[in-house]
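Chain A, query sequence.
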Amino acid sequence: MEYYLVLLPLAFILIISKAGIKLCEKIKLPSVVGMLLTGILINLINYIPGQNILNETSLEGIGFFAKIGVILIMFSAGLETDLRQIKKIGGPAVVITFAGVVLPMGLGFLAATLCNGGFSEMTHETLIQNLFYGTILTATSVSVSVATLKELGKLNGKVGSSIVAAAIIDDILGIIVLSFILSVSNEGAEAENPWTVLLKTALFFAAAAIIAFIGSKFFKKLDSRFPHHRLIPILSLAFCFIVAYIIEKVFGIADITGAYVVGLILSTNPDNQYIDRKSDILGYMLFVPVFFANVGLSTNFTGFTPDMLIFGILFIVAGIIGKVVGCGGAALCCRYGLSDSLKVGVGMMARAEVALVTAQKGIEHGIIGSEIMPFIVILIIATSFITPLSLKALYSRDEKNKKALL
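Chain A, predicted structure.
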């Protein structure tokens, strides 16, 4: 196969994504949006008569790069997880996260079921499909919220700490739910027995505990002997790839879960920031922009039916309401004030890379169709605008109320 054919599309992706990232930085949007729009723009090449740039070989090559990009994204997400934040907030973070996973998933499942034949005509296949649509909505990305709270000087307050801690647990729960649904679906073949899947999941956690103990000890010893040496990030990536492979091959758990677990293990390493910086350089130089561009390339805006449009709108509304009401209501139950509870709900509303990774996994396994992608892109862009504007408005209102009382 003539693999040099992938070089030109890769060049386009890197150039356009860099321009998109710079533009998004200027208008205060996450860089994810710029990289997503890159794929959508490059997709326009398909409308050029006789074009041979986006051919089967080049798209296959881009797909391979994108799969490595997913692994690196989840590895980095694990590395950036601060487990001390969970201890700091404690119970309320768990309650907020649980509600912020269950309600969006439930609403997403309900919306999918209503638009997919209803409960009376539900088969095993449609049940898994509807559950997967709900799973997509469990993801949270607080990068926008964190940036806004930093700007307002509120990141280390009660609300800011709660949002960050809840988002950490949210990622962990979301990855577990995703792995379970993928295992039950068995890649479109006859589904595994749920009890078998639960047993494999339990064995995975046992194996993860052993890997965590050995891996943590090994890398801490390595770090004490070779502090801040490039050997550490190189072996960290090798460790990530090995565990991701074993977990998918042996336990049937998604490879991205393995990458995330390794990131969590190394997040306690003294050189975790150095490892994260080096892996980010590798990822964002090539693999991560290609992943997001690939999502844009696979986003199909044609062939919409009225039913799909209705479902897409319900899906976006479910995604927004689920987080605001679920997380905000849970915070209220944990005796946060009404204003703080609303801030927590709004702060947990944004979506980004994890939602895309989840959806892409569902498409690869044949559980859902690629026609959902435009609505996920819309959800990401909409929440990226709504979240910072709403947080600023809520804090501004509080300041005005305080001044009025003085």
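The first helix runs from residue 7 to 26. The two ends are 74 Å apart (CA to CA).
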